[in-house]
């Protein structure tokens, strides 16, 4: 009896499995068809272009101020007040004041001399007029008239000298307050309150932090490739910008064989004294194929970019990089002028992946 039950159960199992297998086979393709498609990766693209670029040589440079001055006294006096180090000042603002008591006394004396000479000159002028009338009637000798004219001319010269002395004193009184030639900072003091300063001695060091430029030394061999106004690339850490050469000083040092070049500072937030790198052309520019710097991807020692094929798929292209500018980089590989290259979103792309091209910014 038990044997018959087991045999019947075994005969029933295949009968039950067949319908289940049929349901699984028919339902699997339906589930596969209903699976959602992967979203397209959003990217931004730019065109590969033919442009003129030149091989470069990197040289160090420094951000310098156009106004880095040792402001000096123009008169000898005691210092009554001097600005503190770190004081921010505007153009024409006082940074030091010298004691001007002696100059004020000299000014009083000078004004008195002018008034005295003017009184004498007024008398001599009237005397010349009176003697001129007497000379016409031949009441006095001509020499007497000429002497009066000479004395009047001497007084006129003395008056001019007295006025010049007064102007000089007024000038020194004005210069007893030392003022800044531009807006900037007091970065150093050479004298303290109460000390005596000689005329011409520095009082404070003033630096204009708004008007700056870049100074660099370049080898003499680069001079044929450099010219005023030429755009070059300057880097400061992660920042890379393009800026023109303001001037080239064509006087080489006989020891270092270097010349100084001055470059406009493209970033006002670069602190004076910052070390930067300048990419200077060392040969004539040539036409090369270039792409935006953001298009180049470097991983595991390989350099490649993604270009967008006509069917809208991303194609990986291995390239070799060359000359670099602030915005572009030379590349060689299976790439042509006008090809669309990915400049945003390429890090997550895979070969032959569909992409959605975003509008250009």
In short:
The chain has helices spanning 2-34, 101-136, 142-175; strands at 41-47, 49-53, 56-65, 68-72, 77-82, 88-89, 94-98, 177-179, 184-189, 196-197, 202-207, 212-219, 231-236, 239-249, 258-264, 275-281, 286-292, 297-299, 302-308, 314-324, 328-333, 340-344, 355-357.
Report on this structure.
There is one protein chain. This protein has three helices and 23 strands. It has 361 residues and is of the alpha+beta class. The chain has four domains: 86 residues, conserved putative lor/sdh protein from methanococcus maripaludis s2 fold; 80 residues, Elongation Factor Tu (Ef-tu), domain 3, CATH 2.40.30; 64 residues, RNA polymerase II/Efflux pump adaptor protein, barrel-sandwich hybrid domain (OB fold (Dihydrolipoamide Acetyltransferase, E2P)), CATH 2.40.50.100; 76 residues, Orthogonal Bundle (Helix Hairpins). The strands form five sheets. A six-stranded antiparallel β-sheet has the order 2-17-21-20-19-18, with no helix packed on it. Strands 3-12-15-14-13-16 form a six-stranded antiparallel β-barrel. Strand 20 and strand 21 form a beta hairpin. Helix 2 runs antiparallel to helix 3. The chain is elongated, with a radius of gyration of 44 Å.
